[in-house]
Amino acid sequence: MKTFSLTLMALAMLFFAGCKSVKKTDNPFFTEYQTPFQVPPFDKIDTTHFMAAFLEGIRQHNSEIDSIINNQASPDFDNTILAFDKSGKLLTRVGRVFYNLNEAETNKQMQSIARELSPIMSKHNDDIALNDKLFAKIKVVYEKRNELKLDSQQLRVVEKYFRDFERQGANLPADKKDQLRKLNSELSLLSLTFGENLLAETNDNFKLVIDDKKDLEGLPQGVVDGAAETAKDKGLEGKWVFTLSKPSMIPFLQYAKNRKLRETIYTGYFMRGNNGNKNDNNATVAKIVKLRVEKARLLGFESYAAYVVDENMAKTPANVNDFLAKLWTAALPVAKKEALEMQKIIDREGGKFKLQPWDWWYYAEIIHKEKYNLDETELKPYFSLANVRDGMFLVANKLYGISFTKRTDLPVFQKDVETYEVKEADGSHLGVLYLDYYPRAGKRGGAWCTDFRSSGWEKGEKVTPVISITCNFTKPTGDVPALLSWDETTTLFHEFGHALHGLFTVGKYTRTAGNVPQDYVELPSQVNENWASEPEVLKAYAKHYKTGVAIPDELIGKIQKSGLFNQGFETVEYLAASILDMDYHGLTEPKEPEVQKFEQDAMAKIGLIPEILPRYRSTYFAHIFDGGYAAGYYVYIWAAVLDADAFETFKSTGDIYNKELAAKFRKYCLAESGNDEGMIQYRKFRGQDPSIEPLLKRRGLK
After folding, report:
1. Which residue among 116, 201, 495, 573 is the active-site one?
2. Is 672 a residue of the active site?
3. Which residues have a Cβ under 8 Å from the Cβ of 518 and sit 6 or more positions away?
């Protein structure tokens, strides 16, 4: 692995020596954005701008840190904590654009910049986190915090920053700090490698090409048309191409009668990063796990899980593991019953084979039809992307009074991206929302919400946020608009819940505004999913894309009745991945695990049935190896307890749009979510601790 010991000035000289002459005034990051609402000028930003802006951002940030350190006045809140909280603005600005685009619209040049940046940014972050003089100033303020007449939020910011520096190694001796720097740099590059390998395995290294129409038997016409368009895009006109993106793969698994081809595409999916090629992630995973143990031990924790969870609502890995074990005990028997039911269908049809993971979606769809008389193809015409989008906007308007105005004058980073101005009930500007819907070669899989600018406070005025939702949904085909599956519909509502959290966040301090424990993060998103399936809401937005007729009561009834459908499978595959995550990060010895054996042993230990794989296997578990969810994938179901309890509160009033409750939820759980610890904020809304009963009831696990 290449190491970097160049000075910042030398790096800058090397960079500019390899570029065409670039004037500082030509770089859009160096001036205020001259765009509506000061959104990033994507039409003017070029990849050549990024490195120069990063280097200048680092220089400015270092200068700001030096000013704090060299200030001769006694350290206090304003000259130390507030000054630190407001530092690094240029670096934050360019980073928000670059790292978001590297996930949603990357290319070889962007990836090359990311690799070059990785050790530079790791060093810069460590230079701040391990700066003795800076920490000494912060420590002075921390130790006299109760004498400074600080308000509750100022006190919280002081305590959070002091704790941050401790957790980042500020108290370590010099030799241990050097060791930590090395670990951070290596981990940064390894995560980058993992993500690049997975992107290649998903978008470049597999495609199922079908040239015999008989192999399409069972597939709905819309799925066939989509595969034909994908083939055309790939220069294979006249054939049909299916990829590992879920809008392509899942319908194939649900409907294709050709079992061998179902096995082919699903094997391509679950073998990503495990093919012994240049994109193999086994060694990368093993190294990440080992180095994380070393880092945790260096910082005084028994395991990386202990290090991570210490900051969460759960507090200890033991609490997480106990929580997951209780749910596992409830969910596994349900999944076994579902598998048995599918095996009976196979036997009934004379299949003479045992149910395998690539069969699950196909037979689940048969059960869906037989038991609930519900076919996904019946639903899709009512869930055009535009209708679902308008439905989630409607819910937000009824709950919080906000409105969404489409804008066509804002620069975008890709032609299909939509932009909206978000306004309060009184018409005042609240923020900007970007919506990026469809798969493409430069976009990683999945769906996520992020921001190009977060809500903040500058010179006594609120800085409004610029939020972005990124998805990988079914694309339009011909004259048929994008028609979403039910899963895609709830996914959009989910990510929009994150967007609302970002839009509503208030707070004067960067460190605390909207900053919540990891196992709280999914509450705003998951609670928002609940409205999608309410009959009153469905009637308002689920309208046939051809006729405009609202979804009939019969179909709504089927959606409601099928709410418990496949919950054993969905809960078990999720829990299996969560447990695998905790097992990796619960290791206490810094050794590289034999990844495939480790995974097999972990799943055997909990009795995972062979018909189900963990939702994410090790070599494509991006949440934990190329994301922020290491020792934290459990947070979705932890937050599900909160979201089920919260929505049950709305339901119990008889009004799912209860404005009084919505105002309390917005205030305590969204806008002021970072004002205190997660459970305290939730109790302010709810008036009591959450109950697990609504979740168990919702999933049919009780």
Report:
1. 495
2. no
3. 308, 311, 312, 628, 629, 632, 635
